[in-house]
Amino acid sequence: ASMVEDDASLDPFALVADELDLLANRMRSMVRAEVPKLATAAEYFFRLGAEGKRFRPTVLLLMASSLSSVEPFACPGTSCTGRDLSALGTSSSSMPSSPSSPPWSSSSSLSSLSSDSSSSPIADERRSRQQRLAEITEMIHVASLLHDDVLDHASTRRGVGSLNYVMGNKLAVLAGDFLLARASSALASLRNVEVIELLSQVLEHLVTGETMQMTADSRECSSMDNYMKKTFFKTASLIANSCKAIAILGEQPAPVAALAYEYGRHLGLAFQVVDDVLDFTGSSMTLGKPALNDLSQGIATAPVLFAAEEFTGMYDLIWRKFKREGDVEQALKWVQQSNGIERAKQLALQHSLAAIAALEQLPQSDVEHVLISRRALSMLARHVLTRSK
Ligand code: FPP
Ligand code: FPP
Ligand code: MG
Ligand code: MG
């Protein structure tokens, strides 16, 4: 792998594929329960083949690598001078001789001494704590999906029957709680109060976002501002705060942690807005879930809110949650006749660019695996815009 290779030959998912398998195995052991029914329910989405896209752990591992050997950071205008990383053997002067196989890609047990000069027990320990965080994030995500499918009366998830559909609402709720419990104790074992606070706040945000969506009054459900707020809570907060936690576990200074957070926040927002566009433009075939799902659930997303600015008759439909006969069809017609889709795509593009801009503000590095990881994160931010499922 060379620094000048083009993006076409760079696959963000392939960069972390081996490490993701490691995480998947650990998660399977983390969700093991004593009671048989609970065991079946809790492991349901951690089984081989039911794991989903694993977007969050992919982003988090790449973020960890993107920050793994930054130059000592000098914050402009403050007394913060950064830390000397050379003691950890991760400064650029002790660059890995074989950058295509970074230190953590080998079986990275703490005792295995790699010939790689950048590997050290401290760096390995840090990496493994970041891996734990990625597992915790994915477990929180899955817990929220279990509860979400109960709330949405969903019957499918990840191409299989949703857990509520297969085992009933009660077990699905309990399995979600169980995953949160296991995630909480894993979080505590990281022994980092700031990280515990960040992830606890995410749980609050998920519940807040979901409740905002469920209880929005007519003013709220037609407000773009409210939509973006809800979207942050429901989708972006988890990845934003987890990116920040990765930086903190990487012992990065606050300004770097803030950039990691900004990357995650903008990525999450771009993702959700694209998701909302796909609800109109995608087919249920490629999406793996019914198209026009949001409208039929009474939810007005970005394309609708933009369309309403041109076709103000839309507001009546939004206010009555598209309940009346023909409302969904009329809303769809207005969305298609307006610039709603186009403007929503523009909005997603702005967030995608802002995510990339955050990456570009990270402290300069000439370490190859750092540069490759940052390019992969940048690709993910662009990939969001062109995805079809
Ligand atoms: C998917 O949304 C759901 C979420 C992003 C979060 C759901 C959060 C809760 C149910 C609150 C409970 C939280 C925890 C931590 C247990 P969607 O329904 O729009 O998307 P979908 O098409 O994937 O179902
Ligand atoms: C389920 O997550 C769907 C949502 C929470 C709404 C839309 C969000 C995304 C499409 C992903 C956002 C992720 C990042 C990292 C910005 P999912 O589609 O990731 O579900 P999966 O785990 O089953 O693949
Ligand atoms: Mg849902
Ligand atoms: Mg939902």
From TrEMBL:
GO molecular function (one): dimethylallyltranstransferase activity
Stretches with biased composition (Low complexity): 91-121
Domain of life of the native organism: Eukaryota
Keyword Transferase among UniProt keywords: yes
Regions that span the bilayer: none
Stretches for region Disordered: 86-130
Keywords on record: Isoprene biosynthesis, Magnesium, Metal-binding, Transferase
Cofactor: Mg(2+)
Record-level GO BP terms: isoprenoid biosynthetic process; ubiquinone biosynthetic process
Gene Ontology terms: cellular component: chloroplast; mitochondrion; transferase complex
Family, as annotated: Belongs to the FPP/GGPP synthase family.
Protein name: Uncharacterized protein
Species the sequence originates in: Chara braunii (Braun's stonewort)
Part of the full-length chain shown: 79 to 467 of 467
